[in-house]
Automatic annotation (TrEMBL):
NCBIfam families: GGDEF (TIGR00254). It comes from the Bacteria. One of its GO terms (molecular function) is diguanylate cyclase activity. GO terms for biological process: cell adhesion involved in single-species biofilm formation; negative regulation of bacterial-type flagellum-dependent cell motility. This is diguanylate cyclase.
């Protein structure tokens, strides 16, 4: 590995560990940069390593443990991190058999490890006192980073929720419904359990928009979405399927039970005072239950056919297939 490769490795670590860049390069007198393999054998280093160690040339191929030891004099370089868990907590080492001290940070990289260090002066007590202050600062930075990670996770959860939700009604959107419905269908088929689908469509919705305006139409959609949500058990799942059409799947539910739920929902909507002038908002609904030869698509299609049967019966009706 040449100098350019070493620089590229340093740049990769800086990109992946911005906090490491902040802690290390803000320190004065940075003098040591070493890349080792996984066995701690030196692959590359900067000129300062040989200069500070009073070596005639770079100690490539040597074990880093032959050069650095702990403050207690033990030989061997104890790495601070694994490949999965980089740490910003530094460790103090001395050049073996000397009083020259280095504050070192170690990071796992593809080749093995990257070691960055500052040469320190003063007595061991002064160094340890300095390290105590630094550790306090690092603890604060670690807490700050942890909080930012929590904030990022929260934001990601919110983004995921928004991508699955119809913004007007608060119900699931069609894409997320299809994902959950496929899982429910497979589960019902595997365990031979009942599953019902209810297709719902608001009657004369275009007329509502034309007479009362789109704001009123949105209010109707929100109100009906709320009624659907209130009618669901924990295991049920509802979505706005598109326009004024809604869909609901009901696990562990027979046709008779689904018809009863749908009719209660129809009656609640018909009895609600949503628009002025006592305009009655109604919905037609179609119910279908899982049959032995059904696919996910055919079950929904039969629910849709039942819905059109309810429309043909005069609307504000619930029919089943």
């Amino acid at each position: 590995m040449g100098e350019s490769d070493l620089l590229m490795t340093l740049l990769e670590v800086i990109k992946a560990n911005p906090l490491a860049f902040r802690v290390f390069f803000n320190a004065a007198g940075s003098t040591l940069a070493v890349v080792t393999d996984r066995d701690h054998r030196i692959l590359a280093c900067n000129d300062n390593l040989a200069r500070n160690l009073h070596l005639p040339e770079k100690p490539l191929g040597r074990f880093l443990g032959d050069i650095l030891c702990s403050l207690e004099g033990e030989e061997g370089f104890s790495l601070l991190v694994s490949r999965q868990d980089n740490s910003l907590l530094p460790q103090i080492f001395r050049i073996c058999y000397t009083e020259i001290l280095f504050k070192c940070y170690t990071f796992a990289i593809e080749e093995g490890f990257l070691v960055l260090g500052d040469r320190l002066g003063g007595t061991d007590n002064e160094v340890l006192e300095s390290m105590s202050l630094l550790n306090n600062e690092l603890s604060g930075l670690s807490r700050e980073l942890a909080q930012k990670n929590r904030d990022l996770e929260k934001a990601n959860r919110k983004i995921t929720e928004l991508s699955r939700t119809d913004s007007l009604t608060g119900l699931a959107n069609r894409a997320y419904f299809q994902e959950r419905y496929q899982e429910a269908f497979n589960l019902a088929r595997r365990h031979q359990m009942p599953l019902a689908v209810v297709m719902m469509d608001l009657d004369h919705f275009k007329h509502i928009n034309d007479i009362y305006g789109h704001d009123a139409g949105d209010a109707v959609l929100r109100h009906f979405g709320g009624l659907v949500r209130e009618s669901c058990r924990q295991e049920d799942f509802a979505a706005r399927f598109g326009g004024e059409e809604f869909i609901l799947y009901l696990p562990h539910t027979t046709i008779k039970e689904a018809l009863s739920l749908a009719d209660r929902l129809r009656q609640r909507l018909a009895g609600a005072a949503i628009l002025e002038n006592h305009y009655q908002v109604t919905a037609s609904m179609g119910v279908a239950g899982l049959a032995p030869d059904d696919s996910p698509e055919s079950l929904i299609k039969r629910g849709d056919q039942a819905l059109y049967k309810a429309k043909d019966a005069g609307r504000n009706w619930v029919c089943a297939l």
